[in-house]
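User: Can you predict the 3D structure for this chain?
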Amino acid sequence: MENKNLPQSEALNQQAQVEIQTSAVQAQTQAPTVNPNAQQVSNIPRITPPYYQPYIPRHVTPAYIAFKARVITPKGLIITVLSILLCILYTETILLGSAGISVPIFAVAFYGTLFYFFRENEKALNKSAVYLTLPILLLAFSFLIHYNPSTQFITWLALIGLICIQLVLLGNAHVSGVFTFDMFAKAIVNLVGKPFSNLGMPFHSFGILKNNKSKTLKNSIYILIGLAVSLPIAAILMNLFMSADAVFSDAMNTVSDFIGLDFANVFWDIVLGLVFGLFLAATLLGLKYGHSKEKPAVTIGDNIESIIVGTFLTIINVFIIAFVAFQFVYLFGGTVNITASGMSYADYARRGFFELSTASGIIFAIALFVLIMTKKKAGKLPLWIQLATVSLCVCNGVLLVSAVKRMLLYVDAYGLSVLRVLTLWFMGIIGLCLLWMVIKCFVSKIDVMKWIGLTIIVGVCVLSLTNTERIIAKYNIERYINSPTKISLDVLQLGQLSYTTAPEIAKLAELDLKAGPITNLAIQNILKSQKEQLEYRNRLYGFTLDSIEARRILASELK
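Assistant: Here is the predicted structure, written as structure tokens:
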């Protein structure tokens, strides 16, 4: 075998050529007649296109073989098992349980596993990835502090986004920045695309058991496999036994309520945890061990000529400045304009707010687009573009101030709501981002996307750690108690808030409310609904610090 020392791809090429030549010889010997034109064609030399490469199955490529060899190690097996256990924990405590103390506990377990896997003695972890752990843990611990379902969807979105960024950074992918379009593209590829192609790697990691002589490791893995197989069957049998015997069912329900474990969920905990765990293991193994050829970091920007941008900004600025100047009295006239126009508070605030918020969002997007996409000289924007962008941001700031003023006017008339608080919070974030964009116009070295990203992270942390629903209830109820004849209270809105507002709503129960939409019966119904909500949540997994006071007050008010 003279081709033994050749690379595998060259050996496959030579084998393919030998097969082609052999088939050609056989075709010539079997042909009864010889065409002279065919002889001339056969004399033409065959030229292989320079871009041509024969198809080689992935599992026989050197990169895949090296990837597989790195996976079949004790650490590869351990991360596969830990990934499955983590996902079973997530399914039981959060997905099928309740998001409370379970979220920070899962976060600690997840990061213990993550840093154990990616940490190497000869190579330090990515600093940006390590720094992101702080806001992620703060967001996770906000689930323990209070229960605010109306704002927790923002917390979940931020957690998912930050963890995705962190995983890409720990995998040492070449990205142009933390908060860039390149990071978004790399996250899609490394956390969605590649894990599906690497789903076989977690199974390959068990290959270490064949070569490993340690009986302790083998027995531990075999015990875990036995548990994973037996628990779903045991859960099915448990449900059958509970259906067959009422006494046994009552005893098991008592145990289940005491430990906070639903036996009916055990089967799905194992099945879903196994599926999610294999995907997580494939993701982590691919990030660390799947060293494939990666495209260099792509930087988006500096593509549009400054003359085009300058002309565009000049026209936009003319319209915006004219609008702000002409409408200045209308924008900031407040109650004088309301009296003169005959509009109600609601009509005035809604009309001004939605107009200005839409315009502000469009202008913000334009200014950010200009800063990123305009061609720069020596890293700086032309003076014309700088001044036009600053003018755009300042005018946008005026529109934001007007929008905030209108919203505060609406709040003063009708009180707070979740939507109004989120609107004010969002406009505050936009205002701070505008400030960074103005600074960018004069300090070209500043990474405006980084500072915008940090501002959003801090804003989400503040929102998540704040008991928004209780603040809303406290503000509205105190306004009503101080001026019951002048201030109206939306009972329907109070009923939509969670049990964290029970201490504030209990203040209304102490009043003698017999007439109108706000009665003692209505307050009692709200408290009963909140008690049902509290009892429905898992007592162990869904524990929050505010539930202690809420449970005590609800027990005393609903005797």
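Residues 97 and 538 are 6 Å apart (CA to CA). Residues 306-465 form one domain.
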